[in-house]
Amino acid sequence: MRKVLALVLALVVGGGTAVSVTASRAGASSEFTLLVHTTNFEFVNAHGASSVASLPFAPGDRIVDRNDLTESGRPVGYSMEVCTVTFNDNLMCDEIYSLTNQGDLHTSTLIRGLPAVWDLIVDGGTFAFRNAHGSAHVVILPNHDGMVTFALG
Predict the structure, then answer these.
(1) Model pLDDT for residues 113-145, shown as the tens digit of each residue
(2) Could you tell me the pTM of the whole model?
(3) Is residue 54 a contact partner of residue 62, using CB atoms and an 8 Å limit?
(4) Helix (H, G, I), strand (E, B) or coil at 9
(5) Angle at 30 between CA 109 and CA 32, to 5 degrees
(6) Cα 20 to Cα 108: distance, rounded to the nearest angstrom
(7) Domain residue limits, the chain
(8) Which of 16, 19, 93, 99 meets the CB 3.0–4.6 Å disulfide criterion with 37?
């Protein structure tokens, strides 16, 4: 589980995450790139909330974060993520990307151990993202940022 903690910390504390998202009218395909910068981060377990992890993690412990989203240096929204520790060093995560004047995208994933790459499920959205569906591919970069490429249909 320490590997998972290191990965999550690298993503949300160690720097911004570059994210490519597809944003368009429902049912259409397109792409755009965002930078994700973590502004808030909490670990939540049976003993309460803390900005410092209480190791070892146990099933049911949660990691909660909030991120600012920018595109080409301009603020474009924020995201909120909740990851729940499951078994076998896995995290089950849900995240909402809230893009100003466009709508929200919902993603979910199961992060297994400490991968350098993983995929997200895009399974819905609001406004311009109504009925959004597709996937996203996450790659951890050498500087611990992550590149996330969304493909919506």
Answers:
(1) 888 888 999 999 999 999 999 988 877 777 766
(2) 0.78
(3) no
(4) helix
(5) 70
(6) 16
(7) 2-45+58-147
(8) 16
